[in-house]
Amino acid sequence: MNEAQTQAGADYGSQFRGQVSDEVLITVKNLKMHFPITEGIIVPRKVADVKAVDGVDFYIRKGETLGLVGESGCGKTTTGRCILRLETPTAGEILYDGKDICQLNNKDLIDVRKKIQVIFQDPYSSLNPRMKIGEIIGEPLRVHGIITDEAKRRERIGYLLGRCGLHPDFADRYPHEMSGGQRQRVGIARALAMEPEFIICDEAVSALDVSIQAQVINLLEELREEFNLTYLFISHDLSVVRHICHRVAVMYLGHMVELADCDELFDHPLHPYSQALLAAVPIPDPDLEKTRAHTIIKGEIPSPINPPSGCVFHPRCPLAVDSCSQNIPDFREVRPGHWVACTEV
Hints:
This protein is of the alpha/beta class and 345 residues long. The protein has 11 helices and 12 strands.
C-alpha cells in the first residue's frame, strides 16, 4: 500500500482493541478437511477429494479477535466448522484448553461445546421459525440443565435480550416478526446463553444493512471486553476486519498464505494475494482512489478437487518463478509476528 492508502486507513482501526492475554486458547496444527467425491449408487466409490482445508496452522490468544479472510471457497467457514466439530477433520489437531477437540468422544465434546459457540451468517435461516425467541435462547439452558427453574430461565433470557439491545418482551415474538438486525442480535444472545469463552463469528454482519452492521460490530466488541470473550471473525469485508481484529489471517484455496497483526498486514502486506485483496478495497476519497496502484490477479481460482502443484497461488502470481510450481512454500516468520507462505518475499 502507498502512503496515501496508509494514511487513509490509519485512524479507522483500533479504537476497540484492548489488551490481549499472552495465554493461547485455541491452537490449530496442520488442519486438513477433505470431502470425498463418490460415484455409484449401490456401491459408492470414491473418485477424488475436495481439499477444502489443506494444512492450516494458527493460534488464538485469550481475549483476541482473529480475522480470517479470503475469497469465497477458500476454506474459511470449513475451518470454523472443524473447530466446532460440526465437521470431523481429515487430519490435524485442534487444541482447546490442552485437549485435542478432534479426538474427543461425544460426552467430552458436549462439555467443550458449552464453551465454544457460533454466530451464523444468515439471521433468517439460523433461527427456528416455529419457536419463540425466548424458547430459542433458553433451549441450550434447558438442554444442558444449566437453569432448570422456568422463572429463573425466563429472567436470564430477558437479561440476555436486554444486553444485546432488545426489549425483554421480544421473548414472546417469533423470528418472522423481527428485522434482520434484531434476529442477528437474537443469535448473539443465544451464543452468550452458555457463557462461552470462544465464539466463531461466521460472516456475522454480511447479511445486514451497513448502518446495522456498525451497531452489531460495536455490540460484539463491547461483549468481548465485558465477558472476556475470544473471537474467530470470518469475513469478506476487510474494512470491518480492520476495525475490530487484533490479527488477520489470509487464506487461499485451503492454505494459509499470510498472518500478521492487523495494522501490519494492512500497511505492509507481503504476499501477492494479500496485496491484491487490499488493492481491491475502494477508498472513499476520489483523489486518493485515482492515484493508487491497482493489482489485478489474472486467471480463475483453481478447483480444490485438483489444486496446482507447489504453491497453490503460482498460476496467478505476478512474482512466480519456475520453482514455485514444484515446491510448497514454508509458512515462515519473516518479521516478528508476521508469517507468510512465499519464497519470493
